[in-house]
Amino acid sequence: MYAKGHSGLTLFIMSTIMMFFPYSENGLIIIVLSASLSALPDLDLKWQRQGINIRHRGPTHSILAAIIAGIGFGFLFWYGYKTWIWGGIGFFSGFMGVTSHLIGDAFTHHAFKPLWPFSNREIALHLTRASNKAVNEGLATLGTLAFMLYFLNGTGVLTDLLNIFL
Hints:
- The protein is mostly helical.
- The protein has one domain.
- It is built from 7 helices and no strands.
- The chain has helices at 3-18, 25-37, 43-49, 63-81, 84-106, 133-155, 157-165.
- The protein is globular and about 55 Å long.
């Protein structure tokens, strides 16, 4: 899956999760930050181009990488804002950005170990190619719609629109 597909999938996952919580600016930040960080595991491709010997969908595509990203962004936000709320926002966003990337890659043909180092089981559901333009565009659209629904519902605009048309 490409960055556009990963961002869309993350917008969809996070908008859906955040629907279960009261609407807030923090929720918006978590959704947008998670989507922004969703391509983070593919740094391994950049490192390969720079001559670093790392396998694509290796350590950067694991639950350990999600935990490290969560801790790193949690600390960064805690340090910057000096509150535990911001530390939690950073952790959750970093962790979920990477985790949603793993979910997206699981749908492709290229097997990897998402639960490493806790499990060496390889996963590939063989549902689509990472390069499938329709899937990447479709996920981007689905994620955008889910995010818009979250925003419109949370701000009350959706209710107002429904009242006008119903």
